[in-house]
Write the structure tokens for this entry.
Amino acid sequence: MKYSIYTIIIFSVLVVSCSEQQYFVKGKSTQSTLDGEYAYMAPMSSYSLPYIDSCRVVHGQFEMTGPLDSIQCVTIYMGSTGIPMVLETGEVTINFQNSNIHVSGTPLNDRFYTFLNTRDSLVFIQKELYDRISSMSVYSTMSTYETDANSIRTITAQIDSLECAFVEENYDNVLGVSWFLRMCDEASSNAGYYCMPPKLQTIYNTAPPSFKMNREIQHFREMCKGALYNQGYYNY
């Protein structure tokens, strides 16, 4: 049986199209100021090139779709708001109402936002305690201050434990790598130079080889080595 060259080309295109993985992002926003503006999707890591996709927000709704080469954590920027999510095969739904953001629809995004909701609740309590301490007058009792300070230490420890456990539970996927790098960036920002504090070093030491060999984690560790070298420490 003979086939024309055009038939073969069309068949090849159909095979590629059917096998190609796709992402679908559908979002809804209640912020009228975003109408007509663009939403931009960029890699979550600061070490990657920007902008994977973009679209215009029309009547509070936006959609992005395209081929998926690899699963990765991204951020969708809308105005001054950044919405973290996992770009993976399937349809992802984003609801952005006032300051409340929820992303769902795919396995890793569901796992990610279960974690974020728990963490955000703890961070909210932590912020309330900090605000209460900062607003205390000189007439506040020392016992009141110490009670709130102890509560802050307890909440901070809970957040640290939650984040470390989240990374360890997701060593084998992009969530673990991305949140680990976020923790590293936060620690470095607080210190004023690239660093990996003991709790993060422990996470790294106990991680499997696939995690340690991640290109962006390796890159961060090289920057840490450079920062330590500049400070006179040569063994890292």
Observations:
- The first helix runs from residue 5 to 19.
- The chain has seven helices and eight strands.
- The mean pLDDT is 85.
- Residues 170-236 form one domain.
